[in-house]
Amino acid sequence: MSATAALPRQNRAVTFWQSTNGKKVVMAVTGAMMFLFVIGHLLGNLQVFEGPEKINAYAHFLHTIGEVLWLVRITLIVAIVLHITATVQLALRSKQARPVGYSRKEAINSSYASRTMYWSGPIVLAFIIFHLLQFTAGYIHPEAQFIEGDVYHNLVSGFQVWWVSAWYIFAITLLGFHLRHGLWSMFQSVGLAHPRHTLALKNAAFLIATLIVLGYISIPISILLGIVK
Amino acid sequence: MKLTLKIWRQKTHKDKGAFVSYTVDHVDPEMSMLECLDVLNETLTERGEEPVAFEHDCREGICGSCGFMINGVAHGPERATTVCQLTMRHFNDGQELVLEPWRAKAFPAIKDLVVDRRSFDRIIESGGYISVSTGQAPDGNTILVGKETADQAMDAAACIGCGACVAACPNAAAALFTGAKIAHLSILPQGKPERDRRALHMVAQMNAELFGNCTNIGECTGVCPKEIPLEVIATMNRDYLRASWKKREDLEATIPPATEWSANRT
Ligand code: HEM
Ligand code: FES
To answer: Domain B3-110 maps to which CATH number in 3.40.50.1110, 3.40.50.20, 3.40.50.1220, 3.10.20.30?
Structure first.
C-alpha cells in the first residue's frame, strides 16, 4: 500500500533545521541566550538606584569595550533572528495542521502563558524595537530631551512620561509570561526532562520570571513615584 | 435522565458537515457514552435515519479505537477515561453534550465522528518496533531490567494510540504519541540497538505527516486516557538530537502520507 521514499541525508545541519524538533532546539538555545542577556541587562539597570554617577560610568564602560559590545550585540541579533524565523515557520505549520477548528474547545491542563507564547513574543519584539529607539538611539524620546551619554537623565525623563512607563510595565510583564513558560519549555525541547524534576523546573521558571518582572518594573515605578529623580 | 446530544454529522470527507441536535430520553446513568450513542442509533434506525458513525472495539478502554470531543474536551470531562469507559452519571439531567470528531489535518474526516488515524500507523511503521530473531521464545529474565526502568517504559507503553493528544493540542501536534512510542522502547535494553535510527525515522515520519509543532503546552497529557507523561516528548527530543549528532544513518525513510480519504488533502 505504502511505498517507502528514502531520501539521502545530505547535510545533517539542514535535516536537523528542517525538522520541527530541530527548530525547537534552536529556539531553546537562542531563547536561553536572550534570557542570559535579560539577566545581565537587569543587573546593569538596577545601578540606577545607586545614582547618576554609577550608571553613567557603567554605560561609559560598556562603550569603551567597543569590540566586545558589538560581539554581544551581533550574537543577540543572530539569536533573535533565528528565534523568530523558527517561531514563524513553526507557527505557520501549526496553523495549517488544523484547517477546521473546533466549535468548542476547553483548556484543562495548561498555563495561560504557554497558550499565549505567540502573542507575548511578538509584543515583546515590538517593545524591544521601541526600547532601542528610545534609550539606545534616542530617536524617539517623547516629551523630553535625549542627552547622549547621560543615561540617568534619559531614563528618568523618559519614564516620567506615564504612558512610556505603562507600556514598559506591560511589555515586561508579557516578557515574564513568555519566560514563565519558555524557561521550562526549553529543557523539554533539548531533551532534558525527567518526571522527578518537572515540578521543580516549572516552579523555578515561575519564580525567576516573577523576579525579572519585579526587577525591571521597579525602575519606572520608582521614577513615577519620585523615589528616583 | 434526559440528554441533548449535539452531534457533528458529515456524510463523507467531501461533505461539509454540520451539527444536528438529538434528544435522548431514557438515559441510564450507568450506561457508557458509547452505549448512549447505541441507544440513539437504534432510534435513528427505527426512524429510517442514518445512524451516527463512531469508532469502537474493546469498550474496555484498552484498544484505542474510540474517541471524540465532548463539550470541548477530548474523551470528555473525566480524566484518564476513554469515551467507552465514561459513564453517563458524570453528566446532569437535561445537559447538552456537544460531540465533535478529532480535528486535525493529519486526521482527515471519514464520516460523522470517525477520522482516519493511519498517520499514527505510519509513524509506528517507520520505526516503532525492535528487531528480534524469531524462533523459540527466549527465557524470561535473561535480560535484567531494573524496576524503575521497567516502570518508566510501561508508563510510556500504556499509550493506546487513540489520538486524543493530537485532538486536544492547540497545535495539532503528535509529539506525545510519537514520544511515547519512541520512549517505551528506547528506555529498555532491548530497544537500545535501534535507538538512533528509530528516533530519526519516527521523527521524520511525524514531520512528513501534517501534524503541527509541539510547544510543550501540556493539554495532551491532560486528556490522555493513559496519562502518558509529558516527559516522553523530552525523551524523543533527546534521542533525536543524539541521533542527528552521531549521524549513523545515511538514509532517512518516510512513507508518503496518502490514503483514499486523504489523497486529495494537499
Ligand atoms: C527577550 C526576548 C526573548 C526571550 C528571552 C525568549 C525566550 C524564549 C524561550 C526560552 C523559549 C522556550 C524555547 C522552547 O520552548 O524550546 C521561547 C519560546 C518562544 N518564543 Fe521567545 N523569547 C524572546 C523573544 C521572542 C520574540 C520576540 C518572539 C516573537 C516573535 C518569541 C516567540 C516565541 C515563541 C512563539 C515561543 C514558543 C515556541 C515553542 O515553544 O515552540 N520570543 N522564547
Ligand atoms: S473502544 Fe477500545 S478503548 Fe474505547
So the answer is: 3.10.20.30
- Ligand 2 center to B23 CA (angstroms): 24
Note whether A97 contacts B207, CB cutoff 8 Å.
no
* CB contact A114 to B (< 8 Å): yes
Query: Which class is domain B118-132+143-253?
Result: mainly alpha
User: Would you say residue B227 has pLDDT above 50?
Assistant: yes
Average pLDDT, chain B: 93
Distance CA A37, CA A72 (A): 9
Question: Quick one: average pLDDT of A83-92?
Answer: 96
**CB B203 to CB A21 under 8 A?**
yes
User: Cα separations (Å) of A108 from A64, A111, B39, B79, B204?
Assistant: 52, 9, 30, 10, 30
Closest-CA residue of B relative to A27 is B215
CB B124 within 8 Å of CB B63: no
Taking the centre of ligand 1 as the mean of its atom positions, its distance from the CA of residue A171, in whole angstroms, is 14
Q: From ligand 1's centre to the CA of A61, what distance in Å?
A: 30
CA distance B203 to chain A (A): 8
What does residue A100 show for φ and ψ, rounded to 5 degrees? -105, 120
Do B3-110 and B118-132+143-253 come out as alike in CATH topology? no
Measured between CB atoms, which of A19, A93, A101 is closest to B103?
A101
- Asked if A97's CB is within 8 angstroms of B171's CB, the reply is yes
Cα–Cα distance measured from residue A126 to residue A37, given in angstroms and rounded to the nearest whole number:
17
Predicted confidence (pLDDT) per residue in B176-216, tens digit? 999 999 999 999 999 999 999 999 999 999 999 999 999 99
Rounded CA-CA distance A175/A178 in Å is 5
Residue B160, pLDDT above cutoff 50: yes
Q: Give the pLDDT band (50/70/90) at residue B265.
A: very low
Across the interface, of A19, A94, A105, the residue whose CB is closest to B207 is A19
Quote the cell numbers at residue B246.
552521531
Please tell me the predicted confidence (pLDDT) of residue B256: 77
Domains of chain B by residue range? 3-110, 118-132+143-253
Q: What is the pLDDT of residue B9?
A: 98
